[in-house]
Amino acid sequence: xxxxxxxxxxxxxxxxxxxxxxxxxxxxxxxxxxxxxxxxxxxxxxxxxxxxxxxxxxxxxxxxxxxxxxxxxxxxxxxx
Length: 80
Ligand code: SF4
Prior knowledge:
Radius of gyration: 14 Å
Low-confidence stretches: none
Mean pLDDT: 92
Bound molecules: iron/sulfur cluster
């Protein structure tokens, strides 16, 4: 089974959206229309809010359609 996956990154955080899981609860765009605007394409404007605010909103998605991960810095920093 493969789920469509769309990724939106601002360089710091990447928001992952799986449309097939979306139950159209409207929570994301009612909470943060600057980023989640279903009337626009692409509907996620990753530069519309701070990373912190985006993460806060993504965590409220009830279906798991929205998730996020932090973009890793290259790990080769010499630490053992
Ligand atoms: S909060 Fe999640 S389930 Fe609700 S509309 Fe947004 S992506 Fe879809």
